[in-house]
Design brief:
- Helices cover 74% and strands 0% of the residues.
- The chain has 125 residues and is mainly α.
- It contains four helices and no strands.
Length: 125
Amino acid sequence: MQTTLSARSLSTAIALGAYGGAVLALSDVFLTPGKGILIPYALVVIGIMLTIRAERLTRFSERFAVTLIAFMLSSLALFVTSMIRADNTITWRHIGVVAFLLILSVGISLPAAVLTRAPRQQQMT
């Protein structure tokens, strides 16, 4: 079983993470704080899933890794933006939030990797 990412998959994950991070960071800056962040988060997850589906990644491990990397980069951008705006130093509470974010990312990436499986092409014989 091959577990390495191709260069194209890695660049896709980084690009999705950067775009998702920009969406989340800008929504944190311009929208009111609270539950309003759930809508941009949902849009980021849907965008990641649609892009992975369009890329037609065949291996589950590759789909999972791309989804996880993109979601983690997006969430990291939001977390850094929130910390800069609050002018806080890193505390144990922040480390707990990052650990929770990692668990949440895995929980979102697993079903997303299953749902984005591309249909098999019919071969002409």
